[in-house]
Amino acid sequence: MAGVLSYHPPPPLLRPLHQSENFRRRYRVSAGSQESYSSMPSLSTVTSRDEEEKSMASAPSPTLSPPTGFKIPDPKPFAVRPDKNLDIATATLPLLFRLGTGIFVLGYSSTLVSDEDIPSNQYAMKVRGSKLKETSKLGPRPQKPIEIYEFESCPYCRKVREIVSILDLDVLFYPCPRSGPTFRPKVLQMGGKQQFPYMVDPNTGVAMYESDDIIKYLADKYGDGTIPLMLSLGPITTLTAMLALIFRLGKGSSYTPSKQPPVPLELWAFESSPFCKIVREVLVELELPHLLHSIARGSPRRHEFYQKMGHFQVPYLEDPNTGVKMFESAEIIEYLKATYAL
After folding, report:
1. In this predicted structure, what is the pLDDT of residue 33?
2. Peptide bond into 315 cis (omega under 30)
3. Predicted pLDDT at 23
4. At what angle do helices 155-167 and 235-246 cross, to 10 degrees?
C-alpha cells in the first residue's frame, strides 16, 4: 500500500545494463590465458547457462596481473577511510554549488510504500520501516556507448557529465588530462582543435565540440528534449560548475605517466557521488579509457545491480585486463595506481 509521501523533482533530465561482453570484444586489443583473479560476481554475466557458456568462451581473458599481494577489499557501504576524509568532504561540496544536478535521472519520482510492497530482492532505500519506491521515464536508448573526450577538472566537461547521469547513458570516456600523450592528439586529429569536451555518437555519426551543444543534442536524442534548469542558465551554469571544482585543487587535470590498458575498464558510478568523483579523477590522471555505466537515483540499473551483487554501492570497478572486480573508492584508487602508473 502506498504511503503519503511522493516526490517529483523539477524536470531534470536513462539504459538498461548492458552490452558488456559485446563491448569487450569490440575493444579488445590482445588476450592472454590468465584466469580471472576475482571471485566476485560480474555484472557482465548473463542469466542463461547456455548464454553464459558462450559468453565465457568469447570474452577476452585477462592480460595483466593485479599488483603483488593485492586483495579485494570487503565492501563497506557509507564508510570513509580516515585518510580520505578530506577528499570526500571537498568532493561533496560541488553538490551545493550545482544544487544536486545529476543525482536524479530523467522523469524521476518516488513514493514511500510499506516494506512488503517491494520484494527483498529488489533495490529500495529504507526509510523508518518503509521503503522508497523510485521510478523514471527514459528516453530512447543508444545501441552503442556515446564516446566523450574530456577531463575531470574542466567545468564544461562537468556539465556534460551531469547530463550523462540524468539521461542514464553508457559512455566510453577517453580521458584527456593536460600533457596526456594519447587522446588529446586524437581529438586534434579528429576535430581539428584541442577543445574539450568533444563528443562522438557512433549511433548517428555526429561529432561535436561545445558543452551546451552536446547537452542539447543528448537531451533531444536520448531524453525528452528537456534541459534541467541548472544546465540552462548560461554563464551562471558555467560559473557554478567552476566553483564546484575549485575545492579539488585541479585534481583530475594533469597527466601521470601510465601504461595503457588493452581493453577499457568499466565503472558503475554517477556524477554527483563524491566517492565516484575521486576515482574518476585518478582514471583521468592515468589517462585510462573507461566505460561508465550511469547509475544515479531512479536508474533501473540499480535494481539489476542489487540483484547481481546482493547490495548497492558505488563506485564499482571491473577491470577485464586483470579480472579484478571491486568496491571501495580508496582501494580502487590504490589498485589503479599500482597497476597502471609508471
Report:
1. 30
2. yes
3. 52
4. 100
111: its cell numbers: 513514493
Q: List, for the chain, all residue ranges whose pLDDT scores fall below the cut of 70.
A: 1-61
SS3 310: coil
Contact at 8 Å (CB) between 190 and 181?
no
Q: Which residues have CB under 8 Å from 152's CB, separation 6+?
A: 158, 175, 251, 252, 253, 277, 280, 281, 284
Cell output for 254:
594533469
The Cα 197–Cα 209 span in angstroms is 6
Spatial CA neighbour of 253 closest among 243, 245, 241 = 245
Going 32 to 36 to 41 to 46, the CA torsion angle's sign is positive
Question: Quick one: DSSP state of residue 97?
Answer: H
| Assigned superfamily of 2-17+72-340 | Glutaredoxin (3.40.30.10)
How much is the pTM? 0.85
Dihedral sign of CA atoms 324, 329, 335, 337 in order: positive
* Integer angstrom CA distances of residue 42 from 62, 98, 123, 152: 14, 33, 18, 27
Q: In this structure, are residues 194 and 246 in contact, taking their beta carbons and an 8 Å threshold?
A: no
Give, in order, the Cα–Cα distances in Å from 79 to each of 75, 149, 328: 9, 32, 9
The answer to whether residues 143 and 31 touch, using CB atoms and an 8 Å cutoff, is no
